[in-house]
Amino acid sequence: MFLNSWSIALLICGVLVLFLLGLAARSAVRVLLFWDPDSDSNRQIRLENEIWLTSTLVECGLGVQIVSLVVFVLAADYFSQSIVGAMCATGSLLANDFGIPALIVKIGGVFFYGFWIVLHQLDIRSPKYPLVRLKYVYLLLLMPLVVLDLALEIVYIAGLTPEIITSCCAVVFGDAVGGGTNLLSGLTHGMSLLLFYGSALLLLAVGVVLLKTPRPWLSLVFGCLWLGFFILALMTVTTVFSSYIYAMPYHKCPFCLLKPEYQYIGFAIYAALFGGTFMGTSVVVAEPLRSMEGMGDVVSGYRKKAVGVALLFLILFSVLSSYHYVRYLIVGGEG
Amino acid sequence: MSPVSDKVLRRPLHVLVLLLACLAAVHAVLYSHYRHRLAEYEARSDLRQIATAALGLSDLCIATEARYTRHPAASDAVVPFMDHPGAIEHFPTGSFWAPPIPGGIREVGK
Amino acid sequence: MNGGLTKHLNIIDYTLSSLWRRRARNASVLIVFAGVIFLVASFQFVTEALTETALDSLRTAPEITIQRLSAGRQTEVPLDYGEQVASIHGVREVVPRIWGYYFDEVTGANLTVIGVDLERMPLGEKLNLTLAEGEVPEPGASGWVLVGRSIKRIVESKGTAYLSLFRPDLSQASYAITGVFDAVTDVLTNDLIVMDIGDARDLFHISPAAATDLCVYVANLEEVPNIARKIAAALPDARVLTRSQISQTYQVVFGWRSGFASVCLLTALAAFVIFAWDKASGLSPEERREITILKILGWETSDILAVRFWEGALVAGGAFIAGCTGAYIHVAYFDASLFRSVMVGWSVIHPSLRLVPSLQVSTLLLIFCFTVLPYMAATVIPAWRSAIVPTDSALSGM
C-alpha cells in the first residue's frame, strides 16, 4: 500500500531524516579525519563551522523523527480501515512482522538522536570542544539506525495488503487470550496499579535525593529506574488506565488514546512519558563525561536541570494517566 | 498618540502578535461555522441512511458520466474495458474513480 | 522575564524586521508555498470528506448484493436464485431489485433508474422523510416516480410536468413526479429516478422471472461473511458483494486516488523546494555585510542560526496557515470547484456535494509532513552557509 497519502508522508519523513543525518555524517567523517584543536589553519576554522552545521542537521533530523513517529502511529490507524479485522493501529501494526519492530526502531531513533543533541549541548558549553571525537563517532554509529528505520518502514508498508486478516486491540490486549503477545495480563489489576504507583514514588524519591546529594551511582540507578518505569508505564497505561479513559472495561489499547474521540489525551500522556524517560536516561549518558577535563561543572549543571525536568514530567504523566481512573473512583461510572 | 503606545507599536513583535490575534479571530469564526455545519451534517445523516437502506444503494452519486464511475462498488475492475473488444477507457473520471484491482476484497469465498 | 526568553523575543523582533526589509523575496516564497499547501490540503480535505460521507451514508447498504455474471458482464438474475438463497439458513429476506442506466439524449445525461418494492425494503416506510416535496405513493400504485433534484431540473427545463422515458422499442412511457429528494441526500440521490418495480420491469423490458440484482438481508450480522460464502458456493455464476466490501472499496479507491494525486503534487512540491533552496542560498552582498556586522557586534553563529530558524518558521507557518485556511474555504464553501472537473469529468449532472472537511489533527499533520518538513530540510544548509560568513570577507569590500 505505497500509493496513499499516509505511506507517502511516512516515506517523505524517512527520506528527510536520512538526508539530514546523511549530510551530518558526511561532515562527521571530515571532522574525524582532520580535527586538530591546536591548529589555526583555515581547515580547522572550517571544521569548527561544520560543527554548527551538524548540530543543526541533527536537531532538524530529531524534529522530523518525532513527527514521523506520530505519523507512523496515525498511519497505522488509517491503514486499519482497509485491513480486515483491524479496528485501530494495533491491528495494522500486527498485520505483518515488521510493524512492531519499525515502531520500536522509530522510538529508539527519537531517543538516540536526542542523546546526540545532549552531547552536543554539553560539548559547546566548554570552549575546547572536548567531546568532538566522541560525538562524531556516535553520529556515525547512528547511521545504521537511520537506514534500518527507513528499511523497516518500507518493508512494513510493502507487506500491507487489504486481504490480510489481523486482530483488533480487544483481542490482543484482552484478558481472556493466552497468546504470545500477551505478557501484559500476567498481573492482576491491583498488583499492577500498586507496582505503578510504587515505582513512580520510588523514582520521585531517588530523584529528590539525587538533586540534594549528587552521586554518580545514584544517577545510574535513576536512569535505569526510568527505563524500567517506561516499560512498566506503557503496560499499565495499556492494561489498566486505558479502559478507564475509554469508559469501557474491555477496551484496552495503547493507540486508541490518540484518537480525537478521547480529546487526544494520548498525545499528552505519551509526550510526558517520553519526555521524562528521555531526560531521566540522559543523566546516565552525561554522567561518564564528568571525568573529562573541564566537563565536571557542565555535567553537574546539566544533571540538575535534567533531573528536575524529568521529575516534573513524571508528575505530569502520573496526573494525566490517572486522571480518568481517579475520576472514576470518585464520581463513579460514566458521568 | 502617546509616546508610550507609539513605542509599543514600533516593535515588530507586537505587530506579529496583533496579526496572530486577527488570524485567531478569523479562525474562531470559521471554526464555529464548521461546528455548526458539522452538527447539521450529522443531524441529517439519518436521512442519507434511510435513502440508502430503502433503495438499497451501493454507491455515492458524484460522477455520472460512466456506469463504472457512477457505481464503482457494484462494478468489476474490468468493466471500463467491456463495452466492445479492444475498448479503451477514456472517461476523465475513470482515472479518478475507477476501482483499483484489489485481488482479495472483491470476491468472497474464492 | 527569563533571560533566554527575552533573547529569543529580541531575535524574533530582529527576524521580523529583516523579513520586512526583504519583503519582495519573502513574499514570493510565502505565496508560492501557500499555493502548494493549498493544493495539497484541498485534495486531502476533499478525499477525506468524501470517504467520511461514503462510510457514513453507505452504512445501511444491503448486507449482501447478488449479481449474476454472464460472459463477464453483469446480466439479469433469475428469481429462482432468490428462492435458493432464501433457503440458506440465516437469510432473513431476499428482495429483488431492478435498476439500470438511462441515457437522456436531449441533455446527454446518464440517469440511474431504480425500481424497488419499497414495502419490502428496510426503512422503506420512512422514505418520505428524505423527500423535499411530494410524498411516496400508496403501495400498489403505479406510474409514479420519485426523482433527484437534477432530474427535476431537466424535466422542468423541458416544460412538462411528466417524466417521459423511452422503452427499448422506442415506445414512450410517462410518469407523474410525485416526489423530489431533499438536497441533503443529493450525494446519493441526485441522478436517481425511483419507480415501482413493475414499471421499471416494463421500462427496461425485463422478464417477470428476472431482476437486476438481489438484496439479501441477514438475521445475524456476524454471519454475513459465512452466508456470502455459502451463496457464492451455491451460485457459481453469481457475484456476491457484502456491505463491508462496499465501504472497503470506497476506502481503497479514495486512499489510492489521494495517494496518486499526492504523487502528482510531489512534483509541485519538488519545484517549490528547489525554488526555496535557491532563494535561501543566494546570499546578496548586503546580507553578507549585515551578518558580518552582527558578528562584529558580538552575535554568535548560533544566534544567526536562530534568526534563520525563525525566518523559516515564520514563512512556513504563515504559508501553512494561509494555505490550509484557503483550502478549507475552497472545499467547504466552494464545493472544491477547482477539483470538480476532475471528479465529475464529462458528467452532465453535477450533484452539489456540500462537503464538510474533517478538521482532524491527523489531516493537518499529514499536510505538514508533505509541505513544511521538506521546506525545512531544504533551507538548513543555506541557513548554515549564511551563518558562517567569516568576519573578514565581507568587510573587505566596504
Structural class of chain B: mainly alpha
Distance between the termini of chain B: 81 Å
| Number of helical segments with 4 or more residues of chain C | 13
The best one-word shape of chain C is elongated
Strand content of chain C: 15-25%
Q: Give the topology string of chain B: H per helix, E per strand.
A: HHHHH
Structural Rg of chain C: 31 Å
In terms of per-residue confidence, which ranges of chain B show pLDDT below 50 for 5 or more consecutive residues?
1-5, 101-110
Per DSSP E runs of 2 or more residues, the count of β-strands of chain B stands at: 0
Total tally of structural domains of chain B: 2
Helix content of chain B: 40-55%
What is the multimeric organization of the chains shown?
A: heterotrimer
Overall shape of chain B: it is elongated
Sheet bearing the most strands of chain B, described? Answer: none
pLDDT averaged over residues of chain B: 74
Computed structural class of chain C: alpha+beta
Nearest-integer average pLDDT of chain C: 85
Give me the number of helical elements of chain B. 5
